[in-house]
Amino acid sequence: MPVIGVIGGGQLARMMIPAAVALGIEIRVLAEASDSSARLAATAVGDYRDARTVLDFANGCDAITFDHEHVPQEVLRALVAAGAAVRPGPDALLYAQDKLLMRERLGALGVPMPDWARVESRGDLAAFLADHGGRAVVKTPRGGYDGKGVRVVGAADGADDWLADGPVLVEELVSFRRELAQLAARRPSGEVRLWPLVETVQRGGVCAEVIAPAPHAGDAAERAAAEIATTVANGLGVTGVLAVELFHASDGRVLVNELAMRPHNSGHFSIDGSITSQFEQHLRAVLDWPLGDTSPLADWSVMINVFGALPSERIASALGHQPSAKVHAYGKGPRAGRKAGHVTAIGDDLDDVAYRARAAAAHFDV
Amino acid sequence: MPVIGVIGGGQLARMMIPAAVALGIEIRVLAEASDSSARLAATAVGDYRDARTVLDFANGCDAITFDHEHVPQEVLRALVAAGAAVRPGPDALLYAQDKLLMRERLGALGVPMPDWARVESRGDLAAFLADHGGRAVVKTPRGGYDGKGVRVVGAADGADDWLADGPVLVEELVSFRRELAQLAARRPSGEVRLWPLVETVQRGGVCAEVIAPAPHAGDAAERAAAEIATTVANGLGVTGVLAVELFHASDGRVLVNELAMRPHNSGHFSIDGSITSQFEQHLRAVLDWPLGDTSPLADWSVMINVFGALPSERIASALGHQPSAKVHAYGKGPRAGRKAGHVTAIGDDLDDVAYRARAAAAHFDV
């Protein structure tokens, strides 16, 4: 039986468990704490920044993959040096860890992006603002997620605090019609499969809702997104799931916003809405097994994130009112604003599907 | 977070894990051995016939359910006496444990069955054979499964070995067109939901293949099966999943063959083919949560059992040739003839679906 080790015990590791159970794969998790979301499969609790801890954990695993992209390069390279199959590998993960490197590399691959620049000083930022209508998005190169490490600035001193720690990325504030995401998977021997393009709706910089497929993107955007994801997956040598977050700009361009090299919130719909879920596909890709059919199980899927908590009695109430809704609880203790679960509905009529998903999710509103 | 304890660590317990993970339910398994199929969720290894072992295991569980029906009545009743929510409870399980009691009880409920009799001697068997064309099916009241404890006899001495241990059940050898199964679930507060009627194909007394829905059963048989399952679920006070194995007799009658009060092989298709799988429904029922929509995800599902073993390289080869097939491996060591996994395909054209399922399953043929 193949053994996959997952570094990080969050909900993404948790949601790999059902796929591993189905395929007869043994899954082991290196968790941050004993009460992690993926505790059922945790075989170790420790610090993923410590090479010794990670090497010990990896011993006996046929492949190593990730719940998050924060494992330091030196730890990743120690794993590779020790003979571990690290998927995705450090050379690919680098571009998911550092947004400045990512922009440089995507530029070299000719992938369409917002205008961007490396900013080391107020002067750099002032120059970029002057060229882009006086407002721009500044991002820390590392460590940002769910809207953290991202801000809109309108003045040259708007990134002073971050600049004290080193260069930042500045990007054109894209005027967009909608945000999209293209999910893909690539296995080491090269096979790439894409899911249909989806629309993501953010609130407060955090993904709130995903509609699959994207209802109004159009053929040209679908083709552009598929080409971008394929180029990125192959160009960066990604193994496992790749999520490309995209802007569908007001002028019709499809531009890369962010990359994630792991199962991603924009693909949670696939658990209930696709022949092959992103979690199953990720495990297959990580083992270099053939990838699965990504066809939808229904015309439409709508996924709504739940924040804070999913108390049992609310789960029962949501299930009682919406018997066709699929509720996913991440087994986390309550904490305001934290992703604690999601709800998916699927069906042939988008209005009805969205209604059922939102009605079920509303049971978890405060 | 609710806690469900499952007694028995076989593949049915294993397949409850993904449903528990999704719904944020903690699942604990009392396994027979450390290498059980459900070892990922095993919190104890011990003998389910030992009341102390089972009571210790049940401590801290919100509900207790089962991978199999072999837990002795005295252990079940000790659990109830200790305040455990045992689902299904001993009064219901009795009828899944003892086929003579089951026949008596179903008779009282007016459920259609093959002719049957309690046989205590050669003389009893001779009389039944004389009334039924000289051939009949003899079953041990307890402990039979997958064709074990069942034999066709044509002479009065055909059950001598079993009669030495006590009375046996004799049944009319039903001339049937096909075998069917009606899967249902019932929660303690009374809600009952049914899946579509399925056809089961047996080879050597063991389920080989399931087609959902049953292609040629017809409306009358569907109505009869639904009424039977509802009557049995309510009449016996079943909680959790109930599988009613049925003969569709040559004369059109729908007759109860066997009962199982747990997720059942005839419902494995529902993991990939239904909005709510039998495993999710079972956990919901056991917690007395509202039951889920049992609608199909496609017009047809075909499930094929795999016996013996599912080596990784065969899994990869099956997935490579049939990217839409869903392969389920039970994490068992190889053993000839033992159910080791199953394969499901779904879609709109039965011939195509059956082809894809069988083609994928063929990768595991010797």
UniProtKB/TrEMBL annotation, chains A, B:
InterPro entries listed in its UniProt record: ATP-grasp, ATP-grasp_carboxylate-amine, ATP_grasp_subdomain_1, PreATP-grasp_dom_sf, PurK, PurK_C, PurT/PurK_preATP-grasp, Rudment_hybrid_motif
Residue ranges of coiled coil: none
ATP-grasp domain segment(s): 103-287
Any single GO CC term annotated in Swiss-Prot or TrEMBL for this entry: cytosol
Pfam families in the cross-refs: ATP-grasp (PF02222), PurK_C (PF17769), RS_preATP-grasp-like (PF22660)
Pathway(s) annotated for this protein in UniProt: Purine metabolism; IMP biosynthesis via de novo pathway; 5-amino-1-(5-phospho-D-ribosyl)imidazole-4-carboxylate from 5-amino-1-(5-phospho-D-ribosyl)imidazole (N5-CAIR route): step 1/2
Keyword annotations: ATP-binding, Ligase, Nucleotide-binding, Purine biosynthesis
Catalytic activity, EC: 6.3.4.18
Role, per record: Catalyzes the ATP-dependent conversion of 5-aminoimidazole ribonucleotide (AIR) and HCO(3)(-) to N5-carboxyaminoimidazole ribonucleotide (N5-CAIR). Catalyzes the ATP-dependent conversion of 5-aminoimidazole ribonucleotide (AIR) and HCO(3)- to N5-carboxyaminoimidazole ribonucleotide (N5-CAIR).
Subunit relationships: Homodimer.
Name this protein carries in UniProt: N5-carboxyaminoimidazole ribonucleotide synthase
